[in-house]
Amino acid sequence: MGSNFSDKFFINTTTVLWLIFIAVVCLIVSQQGISRTVTLNYFDAANLWVHGKNLYDGSGHGFIYLPQAAVLFLPFAYLAQFSFALAEVAWRLVSLLLLAFAVWRLVNLVEQKFIARTFFIATVVTLPLVFSSARNGQFNTILEVMMLFAVYAIAKERWSQAVFYLALGVALKPTMIVLLLLLWVLYRPLWWRLPLGLLAVFIFPFFTQAPHYISTQYLSSISMLQTVATIGSQHTDWAQFFGLLAQLKLILPQIFQDAIRAIVAVFVLYCGMLTKQRFNKDAAAIFLYTLAVSYLMLFNPRTEGNDYGMLAPALGVFISLLLVGNYKKQMWLLIFIVGGLIASGYLTFIMSNGDREYWSAPFFTLIFMVIVIKQIFVPQLLRSKNKRIL
Fold first, then answer.
1. Nearest-CA neighbor of 302 among 226, 198, 368, 367?
2. Of 128, 229, 299, 385, which residue is least crowded by CB atoms under 10 Å?
3. Cα 297 to chain centroid, rounded
4. Count of CB atoms situated within 10 Å of the CB of 300
5. Domain ranges of the chain
């Protein structure tokens, strides 16, 4: 692959792919109106914030983010007052352009001579997996951006930047807490910087609304998060590990689910510690992103099929490295996993009885996570025939 095409070809082709993808998504959302979009929840929340009304209805649905997300979405809500379609397009442009740059940042953590082809492969994997979230306008895309920027900053020891992206990610979507806690424990320079960053995130809404109103919304957000977690644990129609078990007729009470989450979290932390010891800073950042996102996909109580686009850049990077290292069997296994994730929700064989299924995405992610953990315990990607590829 690399011998037939130059780096310039890969970069130019990948850039064109991103531009076409962004243009197609923007064209779709400019015409789809309020169908197949979740941004109405964000627009409503921003407007409720401006008028000092409650952001949460207690149902665990609708706007299920922290108050900061409503504040940060105010520019798009303001634009929507003049043109809903324009606001929709603007949100997609911002999030997808940032995502393209974030994927570029991630692939720059591999050896320089493999960056161009890795960018191409990571993009080919990412675009189909993020399409649904991009069309719907979900916060998953911008959360993915913040996570990728954060691990890149960690690799380059830009601690203040890492804190900015981690704290902003939490403000946009609480599930950022998985990567945040993993990095906070593993990197000493974050121990005092990150609490200050989170304090700044906590304070900044007070510059936009009355203190009593903000305090009320914080309390309501805590109740909302508890309701969301309970709904996720009690229902089987979520694309996460316990949804996979439910397909096997194994439905666990929430207390057992939480215990398993805690045990796996400790194991992931141990894997992160090994990663720091056995890999260079750039490679460790790739592995830590992969571990955090895999855990999030499998053990977030409310993982949806669209969320798995967050795993795509990591899959693309590992496919590229396995190709370079001539690990063809493992590479084709990862390509099979990508295909399974693209088709997830519609793989109606075995137990789904023709209905939409929720087992396939966590099943394929579990396989990928095992492959990655194996690389941590028995590193193979460090060298191939005495040449460094990661």
1. 226
2. 385
3. 8
4. 21
5. 7-388
Confidence band of 385 (pLDDT split at 50, 70, 90): very low
Whether the CB-CB separation of 147 and 310 falls below 8 Å is answered with: yes
The CA distances from residue 85 to 21, 25, 38, 74, 257, in Å, are 18, 12, 13, 16, 41
DSSP 228-272: HHHHHHH-S-SSSHHHHHHHTT----HHHHHHHHHHHHHHHHHHH
Residue 28 CA to residue 385 CA, distance in Å, equals 47
In the numeric block, which tokens belong to residue 246?
A: 């439910």
Is residue 172 helix, strand or coil? helix
Find the mean pLDDT for residues 15-23.
97
Quote the CA–CA distance of 57 and 148 in Å, as a whole number: 32
Strands 387-388 vs 383-384: parallel, antiparallel or unpaired: antiparallel
The CB density around residue 148, as the number of other CB atoms within 10 Å, is 27
State pTM to two decimals.
0.93
